Amino acid sequence: MARFTLGSLAGKAALIGALLLGGCGLLPEQIDETAGWNAQKLYSEAKTSMTEGAYDRAIQMFEKLEARYPYGRFAQQAQIEVAYAYYKQGEQALALAAADPLHQAATQPPQSSITSIT
């Protein structure tokens, strides 16, 4: 019969597991203020942050907008705004990286929805 004491390997593993699981409860719960926002509200708040010079917050909002509504009417504009916000922060490398997908999409030939059969 196995005995669980702190000296045994199973006892140490159980203690470590309990500490790790218990430690998760000590982390502060992060509340997302934008959880119920639609695309229009996210875009509006992000633009307000840009106007106020809060570029980090604007970038976060625009990225959430793009992630939640990737095919919405604000998604492409959010990509442009992220690149511009990085530029305004003086982060030229990040601005170029954010603008690259837009450049790639603009330089690709249009895709035909009809495939040719030979």
Notable features of this structure?
5 helices, elongated, mainly alpha, 118 residues, 63% helix
How would you explain this protein's 3D organization?
This protein has five helices and no strands. With 118 residues, it is mostly helical. Helix 2 runs antiparallel to helix 3 and helix 4 packs antiparallel against helix 5. 14% of the residues are buried.
Per-chain topology:
Layout: H1 9-24, H2 39-52, H3 55-68, H4 75-88, H5 92-107
Q: Could you describe the largest sheet, including whether it forms a barrel?
A: none
Strand content is under 5%
- Show unreliable segments: none
Give the termini distance in whole angstroms. Answer: 73 Å
The radius of gyration computed from the alpha-carbon positions, rounded to a whole number of angstroms, is 24 Å
Oligomer: single chain
Order of helices and strands: HHHHH
Helix content: 55-70%
What is the number of beta strands?
0
Mean pLDDT: 81
Gross morphology is: elongated
Give a brief description:
The chain is mainly α. The protein has helices spanning 9-24, 39-52, 55-68, 75-88, 92-107.
